Each structure stands twice: as structure tokens, then as C-alpha cells.
Amino acid sequence: MIRVLAIAALLLGAAPSAALANEGGGLISLDKSILIQAINFGLLLFILVKLLYKPLMTKMAERTEAIRSSLEEAKAARADAERERAEHATKLQASYAEAQAIRASALKEAAEEQRRLVEAARAEAARLVETARSELAQDVRRARQDLRQEVADLATTVAERLIRKSLRDEDHRRIVEDAIGRVDRVS
Amino acid sequence: MRAHEGTARRYAKALFELAHASGDAEAVGRELEQVAAVYAGDAGVHDVLTRPWIKPVDRRGVATAIAQKAGARKLVQDFLGLVAKRGRADHLPEIIAAYRLLVDAELGRARAQVRTAVAFTDAEKRQLATRLERVLGKRIIVEEQVDATLLGGFIAQVGSLILDGSLDGQLARMRQRLARG
Fold first, then answer.
1. Average pLDDT score, chain A
2. What distance in Å separates residue B3's CA from the closest CA in chain A?
3. What is the ipTM for the molecules in this complex?
């Protein structure tokens, strides 16, 4: 930068000298004007440094600092984001594990409930079958008993009618005699 | 009826003790039965003896007079008068039955109440009495009652002993066997 300014000052200083040379001699005339030119150059350099170079440098430094600060902030933000991402990942992992545990527990409970329901249904079905079987057997027994009773009633009724119709006096006498003969068996 | 029997037994026992003391309990029983038959055969007499609004003294007078007219001894007259006075004339059948039991027990005999489909011949009665006497070890008096509802044979009851020699009983047992299978 300094080098650029020096070249600029040299060019600015050389311009009057060239004009002077055209008036009387060579490119550079070593007289009192050179001193003035030097002083001019020095003043110009001083002014340029004071008014341009230093504010420019300050601005540049500020800019550099701002960029560095921004970079650091960005770096910090990235680190924060990374940390948060890691935290989220950890939480997500934990949530996933918890969800898995809940799912496994729910599945286990559902399986247990299903097993219990199936067992209850089987027991109920067995009980119903047993009840139906028992009732059926009871109905069959009752029906058989009713049938036997009806057959017995019918048979004795028919027998009674036949006997009543066919009994004669000698039959009565014989029945009485037989019954008297059986009295001894009481003892 | 149970209350009647309890009361009747007490009256019968009292009469039996008095009759037994006089030594003619069986004759007293016969006279009692004869007079009771007169009471039962005359609805008017029965009404007078059993109506509670007729004075006890009048009931006793009627009962005693009828017993006297029937030729009953003084003991029977007094007993029937007492029964009528106390309003127990309707207990007489039970009193007679209880008295009969007491006399039978005293004489070592029992009565066989026999329900039969056809009337027994004398020989059958004797035969049944003999068999029962052999079984029970006491003299048996057969009291026969023809029951037309019986199919055939007879049913005899001596005290708590029941002998079923009827066709009805046989049919009933057959019915039970058939029903049992």
C-alpha cells in the first residue's frame, strides 16, 4: 500500500518537474524547486496518510475485526447448533427407546390379555358344554323315567282291566287262599 | 282327630278300670257298643246329645234313659250320662275303639281289620285267624269289611302290622318295579 502511495506521489511530483524541463533543461533540474517539490511531496504524503491511509486502515481493521467476530459468532452458533443437535439426537434416541419400551410393554400386555381372554373363553365354552351335557343327560334320564312310569301305568291299568273282567269267584277264593298261605312268611 | 283319640283314650281307660274291677269288662264293652249303635241310628238322639246349647243335665238325662232302655248296666248308663253331660258324645266311636283295645290287650287278643274284595267264608276266616295267631302269638278276632274297589284278595291290619294279600298290592308292586326299570 505504501508502495502504491509512493509511486503516486512520485508521479504527482514529477509532473511539474517535467513542465519545468520543457521550459529549460532535462527531466529533473537540480535547483531549489526540487526542495519545494520534496516539501510538497512530503506534505502531500502526510495529508494522504493522515486523511486516507489511516482511516482506511482503521476501517479495514474494524472490518477485519467484525469479520473475525462474525466468524467466531458463527463458529459459536455452529457449536451451539451442533450441541443442540447432539442433545436432540440424544433425546430422540431416548424417546425412541422409551417408545420401544412402551410398545413392547403394550404388546406384552395385549398378548397377556389375549391369552387371558382366550383361556376365559375356553373355560366358559367348556362350562357351557358341560352344563349342556349335564342337562341333556338329566333330560334323557327324566324322559326315560317318565317313559318307564307311563309304560308301568299303562301295563298295570291294562292288567287291572283284564283281571277285573276275567276274575271269577273260584279265582277270588284261590287268591284269598294263596294270600292266607303267605301270612306265615311275615314272621 | 288326634285330640279326639287322646280324650277318648282317657275316657276308655277310666271305664275299663271300673269295668275290670267288676270283672266283666268285655260285657261292658258290648253294652257300650249296643247303646252307641242306638245313638248313631237315631239322628234326633244324636243331635240332642251333641248340641252344645242343650243343657248338660238334659243331655245326661237323655243318654242315661236310652242306655237304661237298651238294657245296659248301671256303670254303662252312668258312663254314657257323664260323656253326654260333658259334651263328648261325638267321641263315642273313638272311646269304643280305645276301650276295645284295652279289653283285647287284657285278654291277650288282637283284632284283624280285613278289607276284602269278596266276603270271606267261615273257613277262610278261621284259617286267616289261625295263621295270624301263629305269627303274632295272640288270639285274633277277624273283623271283615268287603271293599268293592279292591280287585282281588284282602288287606289285613293288626295294630301297626299290615298284610297286603291283594291283587291291587301286587299290581302296585309290579308298577313300581316297571317304573324303576
1. 86
2. 33
3. 0.72
Number of helical (H) and strand (E) elements in chain A, helices listed first: 4, 0
**Considering its fold, how many domains does chain A have in total?**
1
Instruction: Provide mean pLDDT across the span A117-122.
Output: 96
> Any idea what DSSP says for residue B121?
P
Provide the 8-state DSSP code for A187. -
Domain of residue A72 covers: 2-124
Considering B104, B127, B147, which residue would you say is the last residue of a domain?
B104
Nearest by CB to B153, from A155, A159, A179: name it: A179
Q: Under DSSP, is residue B82 helix (H, G, I), strand (E, B) or coil?
A: helix
At A99, list the grid cell.
Answer: 417408545
User: Domain check: are B99 and B147 in the same one?
Assistant: no
Distance (Å, whole) CA A103 – CA B134 = 97
Q: Is residue A150 part of a domain?
A: no
Q: Cβ contacts (< 8 Å) between B120 and chain A: which residues?
A: 176
Overall domain count for chain B: 2
Distances (CA, A) of B1 to A134, B8, B160: 47, 10, 18
Residue B37's domain comprises: 2-104
B154 touching A (Cβ < 8 Å): yes
The dihedral of CA A161, A167, A171, A177: what is its sign? positive
Q: pLDDT tens across B42-82, in order?
A: 888 888 888 888 899 999 999 999 999 888 899 999 999 99
Residue A16 in domain: yes
Looking at the domain assignment, is residue A86 inside a domain? Answer: yes
Residue A168 lies in a domain: no
Alpha helices by DSSP H, listed for B86-144, are: 92-107, 122-136
- Within a 13 Å sphere around the CA of B89, how many CA atoms are in the beta-carbon half? 27
Q: State the amino acid at position A75 in one-letter form.
A: K
Q: Does B180 touch chain A (CB under 8 A)?
A: yes
Enter the pTM of the model: 0.56
Indicate whether B123 and B100 sit together in one domain. Answer: no
Among B160, B175, B177, B180, pick the best mutation site for testing chain A contact (most A Cβ within 10 A).
B175
Cβ within 8 Å, pair B118-A169: yes
Give residues 122 to 161 of A whose Cβ lies within 8 Å of B.
Answer: 144-145, 148-149, 151-153, 155-156, 159-160
Among B54, B78, B104, residue at a domain's last position: B104
Query: In chain A, what residues touch B128 (CB-CB under 8 Å)?
Result: 180, 183
